[in-house]
Every structure is written in structure tokens, then in C-alpha cells.
Specification:
seven-stranded mixed sheet; Methionyl-tRNA Fmet Formyltransferase, Chain A, domain 2; single chain; 291 residues; alpha/beta; 2 domains; Rossmann fold; 12 strands
Length: 291
Amino acid sequence: MNMTKSLIFFGSGPVGRATLEALIEAGFDIEAVITKPKPEHHHGDMPVLDFAQAKNLTIFTPKNEAELEDLFKTSQFKSPIGVVVDYGLMISPSIIKSFPLGIVNSHFSLLPRWRGADPITFAILSGETETGVSLMLIDPKLDEGQLLAQEKLTLQPDVTGPKLTDKLVNLSNKILIEKLPLYIEGKIKPYPQPKLEPSYSRRLTKQDGMVDWTKLAEQIEKEVRAYLGWPKSRAKIFGSDVILTKVRVASDKNDGDLVMPTGDGWLEIKELIAPSGRSMKGADFLRGYKK
């Protein structure tokens, strides 16, 4: 095992899977993958677990923080560093300290902007013009660890949550592959986060996706783009439950085919998912569902 490229990977979801695949392709030795176990009666994918099994990697699946702690008390891992992306369990200070070089996290914001669980969504919701990736050493405090690198990404005004996620995953993989070997070899040193006012994201709930027509049209437009992957923007139009997938701030009630009133003006519904599950233009929905 090449100890300068040996690591323990912590991850569970689709972003974690993409990261693990990129690390393997870049020649890193994955001593072990630590991921969430598959729950009973779960019929969906377990992205990291499924991928690690297909690659015949060594896998551990602690159910909770206590089991994770026990794993590190009873196992003799040799890797000098850990990498955590899209994992889902808190990692204790004692586990962090067990790695000579700590545990590196790729956080999808320009820290200290948007610390917390969902920086991608909140960058869109807040109307940011740029975001990026911060490669950091994890710390017991929430996303306050020292940085190894940051790289910016311009936010296009029409970007959606899924598209931004894809862009940031690609940027994250590029930075990890470039900077991780340099850090392991002692060629880059950790440095403090910029002394700026931090902002905080949170984990979304399904309720966040319920469209509130009393909000400003511009805010609803941002929510539709931000929530496109999950929790999706759900509304009732002409008595039918729909999911909004593409909208535009309108100038008045005649500015478009399917135009809805909001707290400060009007919003054109350009595309939606109808009760049938079909994706359709707002104009087609208007013809088929307006009573």
C-alpha cells in the first residue's frame, strides 16, 4: 500500500459515490470505505455501499455514532488521512485525532459562507452570484476547520439545484485530486477561514417545497430552481396538485400563458409535472386542466 496515497473514505450518498470513484480513478488506495448500512425494507440505491461492493473494497457500516466510535477503537487502520463527503454521521474528535493528517472534507460553498447541511440550495435561494468548493480539515465545530484550498464558481441566473450540484461535484473532484497529494506530502499547509460573517444553511424538509403564493415572485422563482431535485416545488393549480419545474417572473397577468398571482406581482408557470406524472408546458396544462 502506498501510504502517501492511502486513505479511509467516509460517504453514503450520490455525491459521495462520485467522489469515491474519482479518487480511485486518480490512483488513491482506499484502505476502507465507511458508509451507512442499508436499512431493512429499503429497496432503493445505496450509492456508496453499492459502488464499494462492486469494486470489492473493504467496507464498514456503523449504524450510528456509537458504533462508528467502537469501530475506530477496535480497528488498526494505517492510512494517515480520511476523506469525508456526503456521509451522514457525526465524526467524533477522537476519530479525527486518530488520523495523523486529520480528515478532509469537501464542502460545497466558499466558507465561511453557508456552513451547514445544504449549502448548494441556500446559495441559490439567497441569490448568490458565486459559490465554490472549500477543501477543509473537519473540526468538532460546524464547518469551522482550517482550509487547504478554495476555488470559486460563477452562478448563472438560471442555474438549478441539480445542475449546480453536478458542477460543484466536478470542481470538488478536481481540487481533491490536485491538492490532497500535496497536503499529504507536506507541500501545502492548512490556513484559517477568511474572517467574514458566517452564514448557515439547514437540512430541508418536504414542507419547504410547498409553494407559498404570498411570497415575492422572485423568491418563488429561486425556490423552484433550488428545489428542483428535492423537495420539489409543489402547488395546487385549478384544484390539481402539480410540481413546478420551470417558472419566470412575469410583468403582469397577461405576460405568458399560465400566469399566477404572487405576493408582489405575477409568475408564469412555463413547465410543470401534472397529476398524471407527465411533464408539460404551462400552456398545455391550461388547456387540459382549467375548468
